Each structure stands twice: as C-alpha cells, then as structure tokens.
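Database export, one record per block. Field names are fixed; values are copied verbatim from the stored entry.
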Amino acid sequence: MTAINLEQKCIEAGLKMTEPRRAILDVLAHSEDHPSVEDVYARAKKKDPAISMATVYRTLGLLDELGLVYRHEFSDADHARYEINEEHHHHLIDLDTGKVIEFQNDEIEKMKEKIAKDLGYELIECRLELYGRKIKK
C-alpha cells in the first residue's frame, strides 16, 4: 500500500492529516521490515525533525484501532513491531537474527478453514508465527 492510499484511508476514517502523521505513514509505506515504535520514530524524524515520540505512539495506536496496521508482539522481541494491514500472510521469525520472513501457503489456509469448520466455527482471523533457526549445511 502506498503512503497516499494509507493517507486516504485515514482521511476516510476521520483522522486529521498532519505533517507528522504523513511522515509516519510514509515510513510505514516504505518499510520492508516490521519496524518498532523506536524505528518508526527514528525514520520519521529524518522526514520531520519536529516529530515527537508521543506522536508516533498515538498515531500507531490510532492506526491499529482503525485496523490499518497490525501490531505484532513477536515472542522473541521485547517491543511491538508494526506493519500495514495489506494482504493476508504469516511470519517466520529467525531466532538468531530477529529477521521476520513473510510467507503465504494455500495448504495452511485450507487446513485452518477445515479446522474451524470441523469445530463448528467460521474463521474470522488467524495469525500464525513460526520461530526457527536457519539449517546449517
């Protein structure tokens, strides 16, 4: 999702668009990783030197409440990490490097639906996190 698309969704949700919020949206739209609040703050500060950490916290909280970002609490990290809510995917977290690898798998999707259906439920949401170490050859 581009920063412009994300900004439009914020406007549609009734958020006032300020320069600090635009800087935060731009950081999120251009992040290839899953940045923490501190990462977002450091990157946004380069775009808007007047931005405060409190603004970053409040904005990420609002974006999370609106469902525009996901707030991840990966068990290997001591802080939350964020990503734009786009297409459905899962995560594999490398325990040695902390790298987060996104993946999709049709077999897992079918299995999740079957499990929910067999138990008499409609699957609404699922977050799958795998933790591992790279196999040394």
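Remark 1: The helical segments are 3-12, 19-30, 37-47, 53-65, 106-118.
Remark 2: The chain has two domains: 3-84, 90-132.
End of record.
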